[in-house]
Design brief:
single chain; 68 residues; mainly alpha; 2 domains; elongated
Amino acid sequence: MPAGVTWGQYITFSTTALLTMLAGSQVVHLYYKPLVDLNKYINKELESYPENVQQKIRQELKEEGVLK
């Protein structure tokens, strides 16, 4: 095993690291709410495209459930 640790220590560390990463990402999404204003950023980005391209992209995003 790496660094001369036992399988038990290695599995314990790996499991703890995984659970910590999952908890951290959950905290970020609950506290910072990064996806709340996603529609605003998508619409702002689409303004730089021609109108016919905007409509096509908007339709595709609505079909995929990204835009409402």
